[in-house]
Amino acid sequence: xxxKVTSAAGGNRNDSSGQLEGMQERASDAELISQSIxxxxxxxxxxxxxxxxxxxxxxxxxxxxHADELASEVFLVAFRRRADFDASYQSAAPWLFGIALNLVxxxxxxxxxxxxxxxxxxxxxxxxxxxxxxxRADADRIWPDLVRALEGxxxxxxxxxxxxxxxxxxxxxxxxxxxxxxxxxxxRLSRARRNVQRRLERPYAAYPLKxxxxx
Amino acid sequence: xxxxxxxxxxxxRDLAGNVPPATRQEQLRARGAxxxxxxxxxxxxPAAQRFRLRSGRGLLVVLVALVTGxxxxxxxxxxxxxxxxxxxxxxxxxxxxxxxxxxAAARRxxxxxxxxxxxxxxDLRRCRHQEQSAGGVDEACALLLAAYRxxxxxxxxxxxxxxxxPGG
Lengths: 215, 168
Hints:
The complex is a heterodimer of chains A (215) and B (168).
Chain A: H1 29-36, H2 43-61, H3 64-80, H4 93-105, H5 108-120, H6 129-152, H7 155-166, H8 171-178, H9 182-199
Helix pairs in contact in A: 2-3, 2-4, 3-4, 4-8, 5-6, 6-9, 7-9, 8-9
Chain B: H1 3-15, H2 24-42, E1 49-55, E2 58-68, E3 72-79, H3 103-112, E4 118-119, H4 121-132, H5 139-149, E5 154-155
Parallel strand pairs in B: 4-5
Antiparallel strand pairs in B: 1-2, 2-3
Helix pairs in contact in B: 3-5, 4-5
C-alpha cells in the first residue's frame, strides 16, 4: 500500500522532500475510501478526519438543530456513495463539502433563519473590554446590512461566497466541491462579492472605520 | 481580490465567529449513526467483523457475529464496559478506533455463539484455560470472554459463571 502524507488542512502533498521525516505516515483519504470498499470500517477514519470541519460549516449555514442532523447525513451519504469517489483527488474534503452543499439546499428555510440569527447575535466576547467594544461596534456597523445583502444574492452566489469565507478550501478544492471549473469559481466569487457590496446600504468603504482604542 | 473583498470576507468570518462547534457528544452520535450503517452493510458479508470505538468514557466494542446454520441469524452484541477491552493479537496498530478481526477468528466466534446468545460451557472453560496459559489468549477467545464477563453472553445452561467457579 502506498502511503502519502495529507496535510492537516486537508490539502494534498507528497512526502518527497524528506522534511516530514519522523512524522507518522498515514493513508490518504483516497486510499482509505478505496480500502473501505472491501473493508467498510475503514470509512470511520474519514469521518474522524473531516467531521469537525463539515459540522462547523453546517452550523454556520443552518440552524444548529438541523446542522447536526445534516452533518451526520453527510457521512451516511458519503459512505453509501463511496464507490463513486474520484480517487485522483487525495483529500475527501471537497467531496464531503459538495455533499453538504446539496443537503443545505434542501434546508433553505433553516438557512434563512440562521442568517437572521447570526445578524442578531452578539459578537464573541473577549476578556479585554476594549476588544469587546471593538467587536460590538463592528457587529453594529455592518452585520445587519451584510445579512440582508446575503439574503438578496441568488443561491449559487451566496453558496460560493460563504464556502470561501467559512471553510479553508482552496480555489481548486472549491471547484471540486461545486463540480465546476476553477475559472468559473473565481468569476462567480468575484460577482458574488460585487453583488454583496452593491446591495449594502452604502459603499463598503463608507461604513464607519473600526473603533480604535486610545492606547 | 481588493481590500474591500478582504474586509468582506473578514466580516463574514466575524459574523459566524461565535457559532459553537459540535460537542463531543454530538460527534459520537453522528459516528454511531455511521457505525450502524457500516454494520448493516457488514451483515451481508460472510464472516463476522468486530469494531472498536474509543469514546470519552471508555471503550465500546461492537461485536457482530453472523451465525449461519438452518438460516442466517445475526447476533449483535454491544459491550460498553471498559472491562470489555480486548487486546488484539495482531501486530498492526488499531486504526482510529476500528480494528476488524480476522475472518478466521470471526468464524470461530460464530461457531461458539448460538442464535440465543448462549455459549457452551466447555468453550468458556477452554478460553479460560487459554487465558491462563503462558501462550496467551487468541482473539476469538478474548472477545468471547469479554462479552461473557460483561453479561452480554450467557453460559449455555443459565446465569453467567462467577469468577472462581468451575468453568469460571
